[in-house]
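Record 1 of the preview.
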Amino acid sequence: MDKLIIATRASDLALWQAYHVKARIEASFPETKVELNIIVSNGDKVLDKPLALIGGKGHFTKELEDAMLNGEAHMAVHSLKDVPTYIPEGLELCAITQRQDQSDVFLSHKYKSLKDLPKGSVVGTTSLRRRMQLLKKRPDLIVKDLRGNVNTRLRKLAEGQYDAIILAYIGLHRLDLLKDIPFTKKLKLKNMIPPMGQAALGIEIVASNDKVREIAMSLNDQNTYLCTMLERDFISKIGAGCSAPVACNATISDDGSIVDMEVMIGFPDGTNIMHVSATALTSKCDHLGEQLANDCIQRGAMEILENASKIAFKDEMPQRL
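->
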């Protein structure tokens, strides 16, 4: 293959990810020239509304998928957490890169850690998932919505609009943005369960192109693929959109024999929490995500999600996963 075109969003982090994949492909397939098709997604254009209210699923992926379907790209590189569980006909999510640090991170110019925040402190986050878990532990805090690209969010923190904000660690690390923030502290996964797919890249391709599939598969990490597909199975089964207050994480034991999966569903205000986990042998875990979803559904997960969505976008609520 002489030339491969990668569709990517235009944000700094998306470009880092796309150039990272470009370099890996060029190292493994030196005969192939890799170009980027840089696209401004709808999720990057509309910054004054909650993400779930500008299209919900696919607000960061649709334009990239359209480019592939229109013959303007062979492949797209996504943050996997942004990829809906539904993939359009003609496309395929065929490879997942090795997952990096999934932690969320506490950032502040005033306070050293979450436990040091005084009562009534204002915390910014784009995530109902984070809000749910944060207010479960600290109902005395005020959580406000936080939109904009990473640099905009950090600027708002520096200006004092928030006492602290919580973001995904990996993006800040990749862009080397942590060094200028006085107080940073990674949150343990047991205290802030991540969303489906956090810290992994999803490689989506035109399904009919076998050479592109071969190239994409050179990027795949089998353990990450297994865990994230179980997470996606769970999200698909319960019908949780990208803005639902849902945490979901699967991990494989050090010896590779066991898969542990943990999920949390609840209201954005930290109440009505359902926290469920399950374990399976790696050799017999194919349906673990669906089984865990069915367990949650039997316990009332659908009612929780339905009621959570009704209150999620009231004025006093923040507005996104």
